[in-house]
User: Fold these one by one.
Assistant:
Number 1:
Amino acid sequence: MDPALLRERELFKKRALSTPAVEKRQASSDSGSHKKKKPKVDKESSSGSKESSNGNFNIKTSSGYKFGCLAKIVNYMKTRHQNGDTHFLTLEEILDETKLLDISMKQKQWLMTEALVSNPKIEVRDGTYGFKPKYNLKDKKALLRLLDKHDQLGLGGVLLDDVEEGLPNSAKAIKALGDQIIFVTRPDKKKILFYNDKHCQFAVDEEFQKLWRGVPVDSMDEEKIDEYLKKQGISSMQETGPKKVLPVQKRKKQGGQRKRHFKTHNNHLAGVLEDYSDGVPVKK
């Protein structure tokens, strides 16, 4: 073969080997990897946006959010009642004043048909809503009548919390009543209001008080006290309540069977008929 052709062939091979074919493949693989990485980033960002949107949606439609709205409405209605605003409001007015305008129609329907209707602290009247306290008191006179009624019926006092809940501007009214009411603090720190019946206030002689307090009755029960009073010629107060009716005791049946007697008929056959009431007679 011609040496010139051989040299050209060798040069061609060298040029072929020196061409960037492998570099092009790496570039294509790199570009492919970049293409693969891009959708990952997009996917993550899109999934993140979905999570945030789903997160907002879950918060707005969760039961905790619903009951939080209900609690806010009840507390607002209670506060305005305590401030003297006792007129009823529509649901739209309540939502406007409590700034709950972003709730959905489904939640509004739930408030109208279930939550507010069944709440013991909310009263519904012709599609409007108002606060419903335990004691609906208009003024200090109504409070005094309530305490007097409890005193007359032996029901005791009334919780200060219930009075503050039902009486508008309760602090001012209680202060105006002065010594007509008595405060008693329970062991759990809650205050009770009692009617101060001034007709029951009378002076007791100090000597009598000393005698009364000097009689030890801690170790004596009611029966012993009653027996002691009888010995001293003092009759104790008897029970005035309904007496217990003792059950009637049934008479016991007498033992043994009584012999039954039968009326006899056919007296004209007295010599012919025989009596078998005691059994068959033994033949002699």
Number 2:
Amino acid sequence: MSRPVLSTHVLDTSTGTPAVGLFVDLYKKRDESWTLWHSTTTSGDGRVQFPFSQDSMAAGTYKLKFNVEDYFKKNDKATLYPFVEIVFKVSEGAHYHIPLLLSPYGYTTYRGS
């Protein structure tokens, strides 16, 4: 199987473990609005490999929405953030890995490999 065009990995830095079962929505920008394109949850190691090929995921602007509040509620923790949204641009022929390092009161992201 070829490498997915888009993947993410969420780590809960408050526990030092993967964020298992976190709901993630992928949106694509069309004109001036967002269209929900795919919904999923993180795996047992906190990862998602979206099932899109180079042919099915065209160049454009996309958004990952991580439903953080639901995740922390499930783990009996309060959080400042109900959700985290990461907006990014995709070019033809590239792989995008968008990690999220998460705690109840902060987060960071970067372009991974």
